[in-house]
Design a protein that fits this description.
The structure holds 2 protein chains of 2 kinds. Chain A is about 35% helix and about 25% strand. Chain A is α/β, with parallel strands linked by helices. In chain A, strands 1, 2, 3, 8, 9, 10, 11, 17 and 18 form a 9-stranded mixed sheet that branches. The chains are: A alpha/beta, B alpha/beta. The complex binds flavin-adenine dinucleotide.
């Protein structure tokens, strides 16, 4: 069997009749959204997926943010296979013995139109693909796309798969084949080097816990749920951690810079074990039985690491175009993939209608992305991925912040209470933080968030 | 010539809840196991060799249609789903065999099954199929080929030995996955099969066997202890009952056929041939 791989080369074909108007590669959130939009526009579309069913092999932490779904699937909350609605979001900054949590809850997020939800990938991806199939897309599972077909002018005119007689010709190919997209690379859309630096490794365990234990420990009831992002729990390796609640299980994991983890010679499962033993986490997951262990790459390079998004006869969306937003308090990829897929589908349909599927004919895709959160957020937060993954953010700031707060809350009578400036100076010095860096990083953070 | 691939639909990745012990199965991870996929491949090859048609059949719920679509894509000429229970039937395989044959319109010449399924599989369904069809049975095969109008097979025996079999039709075979891999379905067939309608039969709706001939009841052979006596002559006398006190043969003239039947059944019961 042949697979798409780093060495895959495009095949040049003579002009043929099109099997489909559009071929979408990968039935993740991006692919299903793209196929759904193309099918809705009345064009024929094949959604090719290598897994035996959509979501069979896909991995993520577990939270989906709903706003983009409002546009894609009206009243989606009545139909989506949801585990819990996220009504508590927390960011935890930690050292091996300390934890400072900024914990926010609102019941507004526990009712329509809902802000975020936890959902299993197998359920979520199958549901999204089913919507596309209902609209008329043809889902082709257990089929790996191994390369691109091009015409003599170099335009993409279809894909080759690993099945016998496995060529599919199409007006437009939408590559939604996830992180490390061999199709985007084969098309020459990735121009940057140092790819490993733009990737992190996400490792996740799912632990079964009785529903009552989750409700008691996380202080939620009914279908309410919690999303906790963590910083400072990866032994200084660039990255972070997460803990999300499902109905009767929790997902816990770490996200690790690829080059950092290989240099540190530490196994990711050791880091998760350490995180699970942390005094702030252990009581939450005590007695949890591991039912799943999975790992996947995440494109964390952000705006600067994105490839070309449009080629002649081809569009790239979702993780395949490095559209995952990972910047400390955010780890969002599904909503960006859904948005990008949706716009890619619309742009493909518009180009087919206009009879021009060249790069120029497909240019509406970029315009739609720029007008929406997909590229606007990435552009605005373009410096944050670097800041979050920097050594200072990973090794110095968590300790500094925790020491500062410990100093504030510690009662040292009969000594008088120290002033904030003294505490700040002391905790910065103890944790090797230079003022210059602090100011610069603070400025970068503020600029990113403004 | 009809070659039937009888496929078992079961969850290949069923999970057990570690907290409650409940078994969760999911239609998305359900389908044909390795042995059933090998059975389909053999059925396709046999149909090719005999110039016959290959029919993929399953007894199962609507979700099992997906597995049959894959069989169509791989080359099966037809598919049929016999409406069956969604949950696994806790039975010895005879019920599955009954439902399956009940659903068929034509009598199959060859039936190929997987040797046993991953969920509670006892491997007895093929034997029940053979018994119901009155066909040869060759079970637990690691090789199966069709040539010269007959089937040739190799069966694994204990101690690493092998048994070679040659048998005619009709036949029911069950196969181990061994090294037989289901062929990769071509893309156009895969796409066509995605929207193929899978005919559904209800057990009893097309029952071709119902009108078949009823066979006479044949009591099972019973092992009896050898008669006592060291001389062959004595043993012969003991066996025939000559020169000993015995119940003399009785000639009955029952008044009605019912009386005759009752008399015969009583006799069989007295001697342990009937329950
Ligand atoms: C550990 C971890 C935690 C995460 N947590 C979150 C979170 O909580 N919330 C969030 O929003 N995001 C999260 N993300 C990011 C999110 O998972 C991705 O951004 C998102 O899934 C991208 O969607 P996609 O459709 O672009 O790609 P994918 O979901 O990766 O889908 C790609 C699809 O293409 C298929 N495919 C690939 N190659 C081929 C081929 N050659 N032929 C055919 N099919 C192919 C794959 O099987 C797959 O189905 C997390 C990621 C990881 C790894």
């Amino acid at each position: 069997m042949t697979h798409a791989g780093p060495d895959s080369v495009s095949t040049v074909v003579d002009e043929t009749t099109k099997t489909f108007d559009v071929v979408v590669v990968g039935a993740g959130p991006a692919g299903s959204a793209a196929a759904l939009e193309v099918a809705r526009a009345g064009y024929s579309v094949a959604l090719v997926e290598r897994g035996p069913f959509p979501g069979a092999k896909n991995v993520y932490g577990g939270v989906v943010y709903g706003r983009i779904l409002d546009e894609l699937v009206p009243r989606w909350w009545e139909r989506m296979p949801v585990q819990r609605w996220v009504t508590r979001r927390a960011t935890m900054v930690m050292t091996p013995t300390q934890a400072l949590t900024l914990d926010f809850r609102t019941q507004d997020w526990g009712k329509p139109p809902y802000n975020g939800a936890t959902a299993h990938r197998a359920d979520l991806d199958s549901w999204l693909a089913e919507l596309a199939v209902e609209a008329g897309a043809v889902l082709v599972p257990s089929t790996v796309v191994t390369g691109l077909l091009r015409d003599h002018a170099g335009a993409v005119v279809g894909v080759r798969t690993d099945r016998p007689d496995g060529d599919l010709t199409a007006g437009v190919v939408i590559a939604c084949d996830g992180v490390n997209s061999f199709l985007a690379k084969e098309a020459g859309m990735y121009r940057t080097g140092h790819e490993a630096e733009h990737l992190t490794l996400g490792v996740k365990q799912t632990l079964a816990l009785p529903r009552e234990a989750i409700e008691e420990r996380f202080a939620v009831s009914g279908r309410d749920g919690v999303d906790i992002e963590m910083l400072g729990c990866t032994r200084g390796i660039p990255g972070g951690g997460f803990l999300y609640t499902n109905l009767d299980s929790v997902s816990i994991g770490v996200v690790l810079g690829l080059t950092g983890v290989s240099k540190a010679k530490t196994r990711p499962e050791e880091l998760i074990a350490e995180l699970k033993r942390h005094p702030a986490i252990a009581p939450l997951i005590k007695g949890g039985e591991q039912i799943e262990y999975s790992a996947h790459l995440i494109p964390e390079g952000g705006y600067r690491a994105m490839p070309e998004l449009i080629g002649d006869g081809m569009l790239v969306a979702g993780d395949a175009a490095a559209m995952c937003l990972a910047a400390g308090i955010w780890l969002e990829g599904v909503n960006f993939a859904l948005g990008a897929g949706m716009y890619a589908g619309r742009a493909a349909a518009a180009a087919l209608k206009a009879g021009d599927v060249s790069g120029q004919g497909l240019a509406g895709y970029r315009t739609m992305l720029e007008r929406s959160f997909v590229l606007a957020d990435h552009r605005k937060l373009r410096d944050l991925p670097g800041l979050v993954l920097s050594d200072r953010m990973q090794q110095n700031y968590p300790g500094m912040v925790c020491d500062l707060v410990q100093g504030l809350f510690q009662v040292d009578n009969p000594l008088p209470k120290p002033g904030l400036r003294t505490l700040l100076r002391r905790s910065a010095k103890d944790n090797g933080v230079r003022w210059r860096d602090l100011v610069r990083d603070g400025w970068t953070g503020m600029r990113g968030l403004r | 010539m009809l070659v039937v691939a009888a496929l078992r639909w079961s969850d290949q990745r069923a999970t057990v809840d570690p907290l409650t012990g409940e078994v969760h199965s999911d239609a998305r991870t359900s389908g044909a196991g390795a042995a059933d996929r090998a059975a389909l491949e053999h059925a396709l090859r046999i149909a090719e060799a005999f110039g016959g048609r290959c029919l993929a059949v399953t007894v199962g719920p609507a979700e099992a249609g997906e597995m049959l679509r894959e069989a169509l894509a791989a080359g099966a000429h037809d598919a049929l789903r016999v409406e069956g229970p969604a949950a696994t039937v806790a039975e010895d395989g005879s019920e599955t065999a009954r439902l399956l044959l009940d659903g068929l319109q034509d009598r199959p010449d060859v039936v190929v099954c997987g040797d046993h399924s991953a969920d509670r599989g006892t491997g007895s369904t093929p034997a029940f199929l053979a018994q119901r069809l009155g066909a040869c049975q060759a079970l637990g095969l690691i090789e199966l080929t069709a040539a010269d109008g007959a089937l040739h097979a190799v069966r694994r025996l204990d101690g690493g030995r092998r048994e070679r079999l040659t048998f005619g039709l009709p036949a029911v075979c069950s196969v181990e996955p061994a090294d037989t891999v289901l062929r990769r379905a071509p893309l156009p067939a895969t796409i066509a099969a995605r929207t193929a309608e899978i005919p559904v039969a209800r057990a009893g709706s097309m029952r071709y066997l119902r009108a078949g001939t009823a066979k006479p009841y044949r009591p099972r052979a019973r092992a009896l202890p050898p008669p006592p006596g060291s001389e062959p002559h004595q043993r012969m006398l003991a066996l025939t009952g000559a020169l000993v006190e015995r119940t003399p043969p009785k000639v009955l003239r029952p008044a009605t056929p019912e009386d005759a039947a009752r008399e015969l059944l009583d006799y069989l019961r007295r001697h342990g041939y009937a329950p």
